[in-house]
Design a protein that fits this description.
- The protein is an alpha/beta fold and 400 residues long.
- It contains 13 helices and eleven strands.
- The chain has a nine-stranded mixed β-sheet. Strands 5-6 form a two-stranded antiparallel sheet.
- α6 (171-185) crosses α10.
- The longest helix is centred in the first third of the chain and has 16 residues, at 27-42.
């Protein structure tokens, strides 16, 4: 009987990052620049890129206008396929889709890019005398606005409040998460808050935005773009940088449960995503060297610490307070500063940091002997407001 063919393996081979305020530059220009940098980083030529994906549109409160055309056309890439993704999609579906294109021979090198201009647009909006969001068109059936919802924090804060009520979690414990991520950001030259140290007292004294979240419980607003290139591992081994192998991808969704089920209020749909990705990678949680967790708010980090299994349910606050996730801790979390303290470029923020950690390119913040990185993402809520109903796990590792 013939042996079964070995499954194709895939790897990320190029990374391009554009960060910091970008006034006057469109999202299309930012995406094109990040893609160009990723192509150079991989040691490829423009003519090699025959598949592209573009993060566009948005989730959250309201609709955001899409820009015309695509970064692939700006760069003159000879693409066979161009796909558009929701702007706040987790990285898992994009990677899985890219692997499908590679597997079917539709493309050989797929460049995925996403761009944000939220910081510049918010300043532009304020200069025009409008203190509200630039994008105010509500979605049909969205019931949050009539009861006071105004921003994403309104949607997420009641998840944190529920955890506090159930388990006695304190605001200062959420603050411990923000403080430790700020400590990582201090070692990241790209971090917007690199020169802004924080203590728990600073966190507690920061303005209360929506009880119980203070200002420093919330992610940043940023401009910038990130792009990466994915191909087969065989091709990747011939390129400029060491391959970052996609060891596993998993997805989980809360839509299978009744939305009013109380368990939805203080946990994320991690288990299915984690188990799928870990099974593909052949690993256990203890094998993970660094965790790059989607951190739109401090509460989401705390939930994931529990739901992935680094601590028991209800113990996330004390676990974070122990210093376990900061520099020198037992599980380094969001080593670049994350969305809370580096920059908010959606699910691409933790993915980019995971790539750099596995490559050994993270400089002062590099985790020693980092062989496996866990990258998470969530969003695309099917139940409004802000249920964080969709979660993905990606395991990245060295080529061995």
């Amino acid at each position: 009987m013939p042996h079964a063919a070995q499954a194709t393996q895939y790897a990320i081979v190029g990374l391009g990052i554009v960060h910091g305020p970008q006034p006057g530059r469109t999202r299309r220009i930012l995406a094109a620049e990040a893609a160009r940098l990723a192509i150079v980083d991989a040691g490829l030529a423009r003519e090699d890129i025959d598949g592209t994906m573009d993060f566009r549109g948005g989730a959250g409160p309201g609709s955001e206008p899409n820009y015309d055309d695509a970064f692939s056309r700006m760069l003159g890439l000879p693409t066979n396929v161009h796909l558009c993704l929701t702007r706040y999609s987790p990285s898992g579906p994009a990677i899985a889709s890219a692997m499908g294109l590679l597997d079917r021979g539709i493309a050989n090198y797929v460049c995925v890019a996403g761009s944000w201009d939220d910081w510049s647009k918010s300043r532009e909006n304020r200069s025009n005398g409008n203190a509200r969001s630039l994008y105010t068109v509500g979605r049909e059936g969205y019931w949050g606005k009539p009861v006071g919802e105004a921003r994403a924090v309104s949607n997420h804060v009641w998840l944190a409040a529920r955890h506090m009520a159930e388990y006695g979690t304190t605001s200062a414990q959420f603050g411990a998460i923000a403080v430790q991520q700020r400590a990582w950001a201090a070692m990241n030259p790209r971090a917007a808050t690199r020169h802004k140290p924080m203590t728990v007292e600073d966190h507690q004294n920061s303005p209360m935005i929506v009880d119980p979240y203070h200002l420093f419980d919330m992610c940043l607003v940023s401009d910038g773009a990130i792009a990466y290139i994915i191909t087969t591992l065989d091709r990747a081994r011939d390129l400029a940088k060491p391959p970052v192998v996609v060891k596993g991808v998993g997805c989980g969704e809360m839509v299978g449960q009744d939305w009013w089920d109380q368990t939805n209020y203080s946990q994320l749909p991690v288990r299915t995503a984690r188990d799928q990705a870990f099974r593909q990678a052949g690993i256990e949680l203890s094998d993970i060297d660094v965790a790059e967790l989607y951190d739109c708010f401090t509460g989401e980090v705390l939930f994931q610490l529990e739901d992935y299994g680094w601590c028991a349910k209800g113990e996330g606050g004390s676990f974070a307070e122990s210093g376990a996730i900061g520099p020198g801790g037992s599980i380094p979390v969001n080593t670049g500063g994350g969305l809370l303290s580096c920059y908010h470029l959606g699910a691409l923020t933790p993915l980019a940091e995971g790539i750099e950690q596995v490559r050994g390119e993270a400089g002062e913040r590099q985790v020693a002997d980092c062989e496996l990185a866990l990258v998470s993402g969530h969003g695309l809520e099917l139940v409004s407001p802000g249920m964080s109903s969709y979660h993905t796990t990606v395991v990245l590792g060295r080529d061995r």
